[in-house]
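Just curious: can you write whichever protein you like plus the matching structure tokens?

***
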Amino acid sequence: MGKGGEAGPGARGPAGGWARLHHVHSDMDSASPARSEWTVIDNAERRRFEIDLGDALAIAEYNLPEGMIMFTHTKVPPHHEGKGIGSALIRAGLASARDRGLKVIPICPFFAAYMQKHEEEQDLLDETWRRRIGGRG
């Protein structure tokens, strides 16, 4: 399955609401002790993408203004940082935005930095943010 590909039409999310699942491959080197694939759940009821890490959740929170998705906060527990988890959350969020035809507003600094580094995703940016980040998309 490719980056950000959907695993299925939906599944029950942790809060009981319907959520879309995304399997996201990490950019981490295969020799790394980090997992190479994460299952990301779009918990629409709580307006966040989640990865269950066993002992904690990693999250990317969002709001949905009309025709857009605004990513407001990304949080990875400190003892799980550096494993590609935050990037996996972002890739799943961007795949969801693309699937739903939404423009992206990256309020979260981590999200904005990712967008700045990845020109191939900048076509998703809202025009104001594309100018702010300096994107070409």
Notes: The two ends are 25 Å apart (CA to CA). The chain has one domain: 5-133. DSSP finds three helices and seven strands in the chain.
